Structures are given as structure tokens and as C-alpha cells.
Amino acid sequence: MRLKNKIMYGAGDMGISIVYFAVGIFFIFYLTDFVKMDPYLAGLAFFIGKLWDGVNDPFMGWISDRTSSRYGKKRVYMLFGAIPFGLSFMSLWIIPIAASQFTQFILAILAMLLFGTMYTVVVVPYMALVPVMSDDYDERTQITGIRAMLSTLGTIFGGGIAIVVSGLDSIRGMGIIFGIYAALMILIAAHGVKDVETREINQNAINTGTFRDYLQLLKDKNVSILLSLKFLGAIGTGLLSASIPFYAKYILGDESYSTYGLAVYIIFGALAIPIWNKLSITRDKRDLLLISNILVFTVLMLIAFIVSENTIILFFIGSALLGITMASYLLFPYSLVPDLVDYYQSKTGERRESIFFGFWSTVHQLGIAFSGLILGLYLQWGGYDPDIAVQSENTLIVIKAAFGILPGIFLVLAALTLRKYDINKSSFENFTKA
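RE: above sequence
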């Protein structure tokens, strides 16, 4: 596949990430500190929306696998879902501050449900294109790496800009601009993969199973391990993302520092992805992921409990180290799913890339949903009050732990689940040659 098309495909993830991380990093903070919703209600609204987002993913995968269209099984949803996807993101940022808490709560849930639906319609087919684009183990890792590097740019724009906007008018303007940009990037990606599905790998592979048959896949050891990895990792990354605004405001003393730190994180993460990619050629991804996630945990703890308003330089050093260590998590898990697709095609004769990526997206969204609920309840328990400028000492410790301890624990647990995963480069080459 030509490099230009790989980059165009990866551009889609840049658009997805800009809205995904704006929601993941800023939405709960927006509800508590701008809309003035109680933390537990903000966390619950986020949880319900993401829970729906997760539940509908495997259905979208099943539908996509069975779609017949001249625009392709997957590309068709990118083409016609891009604009509604952008509009659904805009709806998140128009919750009225003058309404009652109950009304705000209901509107937040409805907006999250709409956004979650359109996110699923676009993103599940988009992710499922990787195993169709290439059947080469290393090229798939390269495609995933390009997508991850472009995704990190979306992260800094989506999360970084959202953190520093001030006032509801600016927030709503951000919603419009980001929504348009996301829709445009999805359309570019759809153009980049225009001919991919016409030369789909093994055109004789068919999908005849019912949705109940697909659910049986969850009983398989390798499937359950990979989904457990994603679920625990999503809780970890979700907690980290959602706690950033609170950490920046109350520990660093200035929200803008988090944007600069995020930029440092992105730059060093993007530089590190090719290094992790090269290491994976000669080393087992399972070992690399465990080592890197342990290092992530260590770096997060150091940032959380050593950095203060007077030692900002340490925060930027920590951000650089975090980017280098987290790059492997952004690369390796996503490169494992296409291999699983081919493994089951070799066993059953059916290509099920969309349903596999549907399950993958489901557990990811469920993990993110629980991360929002955990953070909301944790802040409520810790006495967080958005109406006071200086939080209590106990609340500050809670915020530090939410940023530096909880995410690291879940990321290490995620890497540990992968230890018994059977599909590596050697086994992949054996069953693809069979």
C-alpha cells in the first residue's frame, strides 16, 4: 500500500482524536466547573453515555460485516457518517448553565448518547479497515504507527486547546471548529482507502454467522485476554485524561501548563513510536508493553507527588518521559487485533474484522465509562468543590492520586493480562502460511 494512502487513512484518527480527547479530557471538568454540576452527576452522565457507546459497538461491527454497498462494507459509514458525527460533537457543548441540575443532567446524557451513537457508526468501520489494508505483520504495525502519530496530534489539539479555553462562548466555538475538522478528516480517510475493499484479502471469505454466533467468540482465550487488556487499559487512560484539568488547575496552579506539557508529551511520544516499532521486530510485544507500562506508572507517580507550582520544569521533563513510555501502549494493542482477525479466518474461513473491532471498541468505551464514574465518585468522596479556589489538603491528595496512582495501576494490570496471549509474530507466520 502506498505511503500517501496510509497517511490519508491515519488522518482520520487525527480527526477522531481531536473530538475524542476533548470529551475525555475536558467534558467532566466542563460539567463541574462551567455548567456547575455536582461531580457525581457529571461522572454519572459521562458513564451512561460511554456505556451506551460500548454496548452498541459489536452491533455496528456485525452490521458492517454484513453490509453490501458499492461504497464498501466499511467506507460507506465513513462517507455518510462523517458530517452527523461532527454535528453530534457540537451538541455536547450547548448545555445551558441557567437550567436546573436535573435538566442539565438529562441534556448531558442525551448529548453523550447522540455522540456515542455517531462515534460508533464511524469509528468501528474505520478501525476495522486495518486487516483489509494489509496482510503483512510488520506493515500493519507500520500503519498503526502512522495512525498513532497522527492521533497524537489530535490529542494535543483536542485535549490541550479544550483545557485552556475560557467562557462558554469560547467552548461552543471550539465545539463547532472541532466538529467540522473531525468530519473533514474522516472524509479524507475515506478517500484514501477508496479502492481497498475492492481488493479485500481472500475475497472468498464470507460472513454467515448470526450475532449470537459472534458472541461465542468471547469464550475464546485469546479474545478474552485481548479484550481484558483493552478494558483495563481504557480505565487507566480514561482516568489519566479526565484528571488532567483538575491536576493542572489545583496542583500546577495554571491550566496552560497542562497544554504545554501535553505538547511535550505528544512530541516525544511521536518520536518514540518508530523506536518502539523497530523494537517490536526483534522483541516480543508482550514484554515491551509490560516494561513500558511499569515505566509509565513510575513516571506518573513522580509527576504527581514531586511536581508543584515551584518545580514546573520537572513537570515538563516528566511529560517527555511519559510520552516516550506511553507510546508503546498507543502502538502495540491496536496492532494485535488484525492478527486475531486472520487467526480466526484461518480456523473458520470467515473474515470478522468489524465484529472484532466492535468488541474491541466496546470494552474500550466501557473502560472509559467506568473511568468517568470512578473519577466523579472519587472527587465527590474527596470533598471536591468547584466553587472554591483553594481545595483542602485532603482533596489535593485525592487529585494527585487520581492523576498519578490510579491510572498506573490499571495500565500495569492491563499489560499483565497479555502474558498468556498466544498470537505473536512466529505463530502468526505459521498459521498464515498454513
